[in-house]
Amino acid sequence: MTGKKKSAQASVEAMYRVFTVPEAPESTLSRIDQNISRNLAGFLQEHIVAVERDLSEVEKDFSDYAIPEKPIFVSEQAQFLLDKLVANSVHTASPSFIGHMTSALPYFMLPLSKIMIALNQNLVKTETSKAFTPMERQVLGMIHRLVYEQDGAFYRKWMHDPRHALGAMCSGGTVANLTALWVARNNAFPAEGSFRGIHQEGLFRALRYYGCEGAAILVSRRGHYSLRKAADVLGLGRDFLVPVDTDDDNRINTDALREKCLELHRQKIRVMAICGIAGTTETGNVDPLDAMADIAREFGAHFHVDAAWGGPTLFSRTHRHLMRGIEKADSVTFDAHKQLYVPMGVGLVVFRDPSLASAVEHHAQYIIRKGSRDLGSTTLEGSRPGMSMLIQSGLRILAREGYEILIDQGIDKAKTFAEMINAEPDFELITRPELNILTYRYCPEKVQQALSVADSLQVERLNTSLNRITKFLQKTQRERGKAFVSRTRLEPARYFNFPCIVFRVVLANPLTTKEILADILKEQRELSAEEGIQDEIKILDQMADAVLKLHQTGAQQA
Fold first, then answer.
1. What Pfam families does this protein map onto (predicted)?
2. pTM of the model
């Protein structure tokens, strides 16, 4: 016995073993698999959001830039991942992680995902996917019916028609929005006369042929940043993603939308698409989709609804009325890794008219030939995993009734949290929840009183101080790792549209309780008493006193 550590060797035999399914239940790989499963189960049962360790320290574990010359054992790599990766990951499934649109997953997604990984199907082509292609078509049909509610005859005709597609599966909402607007662009400048279409001749020739000075996409100021990416990638330019003002509830102002369309028309800029939002990222509000559909029809524009977040509200009989008008959309984006509760990353877009997707159809002789059933002919991405399997599993295991419970609970929980915030004298609710997202901030009662009587300059000074405090509280709470709320910047009308930094909360995790929400407020209140922020708290207090005193003096003189 020399005690010398055994090392891995690269050889033909070793490579063969790596690619061979282990036969014995007690094989090394089987034991590794069991160990990983136990470790992950323990991680997921923890309620802490993140270990309090600085990111610069974590970076040291991943500082090697050279590809190793010699191999290591799978067991070594597994232990490295458990110690350095898992242990330092963000626990997005924690019930106190309420800051982003990432939540707990149904636990059945973990074992079922092994099927998808083991089969390693590529959905670009039926030759590499077989049964996964009709399953993907079925999932697109199910979501299409959720949105558009066509009858059975419609889906029997179109769902598996090899010449049409009811939608496109994508890696997320960004690519889904891009796909929808790609379709909109190509249909806005179709082949006509001597012009062979924008898809063939490009944007410059399309604009020249149709006598346009540009093409625009209109969306509210609360539109997702992916739409700016789309305007860039599609060659329109970011300036031609035209923002439209919103009302006090962060919904698009339809009068302003129509005025903007008329203005663009006078400038010979084609209104290519109008985008409604069903669940804004920052505040969870829903645009007046019905009215927007009418304006889109008036100007001959493609009407797209970004329902990446709010789309599953359609499962709820109580709240689906909030989506009224979505059925008039030409295309609708869903993010399955949000409120359909499947793993990262999968989104999809569905088209009201099965022929719309043909505007972006591509073919290649070696893989996606014309007339084949391949869904890759109408997707932006080529090789794609069979994520539709997990969506279909969720739709079958949870079913409409299960999703309805999740949606209803999330909205009810958000309303409860809003009531809790309103009951706290030193917290201020900034936006009321329409779905299950809300914003608020720490704002002492005296400061709230001062803000209610302050002029625009005083409001600016008070909010500037509050912004520094909010940023400190959010960052410190995140670093402590027990809970997490995100932060964003809004321009409330009641504060003369001055940019205010606020806490943003997303209540989609069914494991989040009222007690957890109370603890989050309690921790924020305690953080406001910490030494690191006391100088700013004193300045804020003095400013509030000065505003109230000045107001009182003015009232007495009047």
1. Pyridoxal_deC
2. 0.91
